Amino acid sequence: MSDILVIGGGVIGLMTARELAVAGAKVTLVEMSETGRESSWAGGGIISPLYPWRYADAVTALAGWSQREYPQLCAQLAEETGVDSELLRSGLLILDAEEEAAARAWAATHQAVIEVLDVVALEASEPGLAPRPERVLWMPEIAQVRNPRLTKALRRAIAPRVTIREHEEVVELLVEGDRASGARSRKGEIRADQVVVCTGAWTGKLLEQIGAAPAIHPVRGQMILFYGKPGEVRHIVLSHDHYVIPRKDGRILIGSTLEEVGFTKATTAEAKEELYRSAVELFPLLKHTPIEDHWSGLRPAAPSGVPYIGGYPGIDGLYFNAGHYRNGLVTGPASARLIADLMLGRDPITDPTPYALGAPR
Ligand SMILES: Cc1cc2nc3c(=O)[nH]c(=O)nc-3n(C[C@H](O)[C@H](O)[C@H](O)COP(=O)(O)OP(=O)(O)OC[C@H]3O[C@@H](n4cnc5c(N)ncnc54)[C@H](O)[C@@H]3O)c2cc1C
After folding, report:
1. pLDDT tens across 41-87, in order?
2. Residue 46: CB within 6 Å of ligand 1?
3. Assigned domain for 68 exists
4. Distances in Å between the alpha carbon of 54 and those of 48, 99, 100, 109?
5. Distance between CA atoms of 289 and 287, rounded to whole angstroms?
6. Helix (H) or strand (E) holding 235
7. Which residue's CA lies nearest to atom 37 of ligand 1?
8. Domain of 351?
9. Distance 125 CA to ligand 1 centre (A)
10. What pTM did the predictor assign?
């Protein structure tokens, strides 16, 4: 029997398992497919919310803590596993300068760096970009990670101390009286003193069985990938909710769509066309660049994008860490530390109240 059962092996479950194992807990992680293959694989890996001023302070608090933690986390993972998560401080250019006032007010409150570039500075900074607005917003500190590499590194890092059970779907949470006692999977019972549900978009399905469930639903996001060359695009560029991310090796990602289609993960020709059009409007050189891949993922959407992190009311030992919507990479490290603090009775890194099940969102 394990002290703690983590259900779900996306970035949230992997980081949660790591935090708990590092603190000395005996942890089992159970995943219905393979770790890091769902939303956490599909995402762009931008270590910032898009238009961060549009979000609640509860999201900003988790994002800020995680942004400070990422360099150390990636360095430690690389040392332990040999896998480079490709943390890259590529900076974020935002072409929607009509949001300048809101952006500046938010930056002043949260000590964030947001500069304004004029058209000359923009041309020097991003020569391949076609639109030349008079003013753009520039966040030089924003970084990205290559999320499939990050989840690979996390899995390797926890493997020596966490029991990882893949291809095993949990179908029921086990509760005895007012205490969690484990879960039932398609392969049998897994007993544990504490259980934490990190099942992303699927979280409602499990928690509904025992009562009130977090209001999390899937929102599909599609991306395309160009086989670009290093330097063609220099920074992350965001314009009208579409973004371009240049990877270290020259590959260029374009995202993304926001689609309410339930648990359907198929990609569509319409979305590919929409993303392609947006890409070549921003960077005409991409007309001559082959598209290498096109995929989708199901974001775990919670109201206002504020994740659910905390203990299940009335059931001792049952916890959740889910609903990170568009920001699971950037809020993951803080969410994992916070849930570990709550489960292990430590002082929490931030006030947990806004993330509770019944908190207003
Ligand atoms: C197109 C796109 C772009 C994105 N871009 C960014 C970005 O740039 N920056 C950012 O911060 N975030 C981004 N995100 C959001 C981010 O990817 C998610 O918030 C994050 O991956 C959520 O992590 P998770 O572990 O909760 O979910 P998931 O990665 O979906 O993991 C949940 C896991 O639980 C498993 N599971 C579910 N039910 C069960 C069960 N019953 N039994 C066992 N296992 C189960 C699933 O198989 C899955 O592996 C993006 C998402 C998408 C789709």
Report:
1. 999 999 999 999 999 999 999 999 999 999 999 999 999 999 999 99
2. yes
3. yes
4. 12, 10, 12, 13
5. 6
6. none
7. 199
8. 1-90+144-216+304-361
9. 33
10. 0.98
